[in-house]
Write a structure and sequence with these properties.
This protein is an alpha+beta fold. The chain contains four helices and nine strands.
């Protein structure tokens, strides 16, 4: 079994371990937003990533696996928002998002008050569409 896979852990357990009420509140708001955009129930993926929906990917190299369609990880220090690095207009979206730090496949925010949640919703909607249009990706129901 892959280390990065759905777990039996409840998403509330992940959130309730956060160190401040503000971080917990932000995480629950993100669950609502991600669920609204994806239409999927939150599932905890190892290690502590809250994912929505699932798809199977296969690269031209032959490497394959499963991943959540949309995901975030509420951490004690920052919230990690997983944004496809190949998302068209990614830079434009991120320039409008608000205060954040960028990495290859994720964006780190301190708190939701630092970003424009409407822009985040726009990113999520387009990220979901983009992920499902990649030629080797297939939505799964597992």
């Amino acid at each position: 079994m892959s280390k990065f896979a759905p777990t039996e852990q409840n998403f509330q357990e992940v959130i309730e371990k956060l160190n401040t009420e503000q971080k917990k509140c932000d995480a629950y708001k993100l669950v609502e937003l991600f669920q609204k955009v994806s239409g999927e129930f939150p599932v905890v993926w190892h290690p502590g990533i809250i994912g929505f929906g699932q798809y199977r990917y296969k690269y031209e190299s032959g490497r394959k696996g499963d991943s959540p369609l949309l995901a975030f990880a509420p951490r004690k220090a920052k919230i990690s928002l997983y944004i496809d690095q190949d998302l068209p207009n990614r830079e434009e979206y991120l320039n409008r998002l608000g205060k954040h730090k960028r990495a290859v496949s994720c964006v780190y925010v301190n708190k939701l008050a630092d970003i424009d949640v409407k822009v985040l919703e726009e990113i999520l909607v387009n990220s979901l569409k983009h992920t499902l249009t990649k030629p080797h990706n297939m939505k799964t129901t597992e």
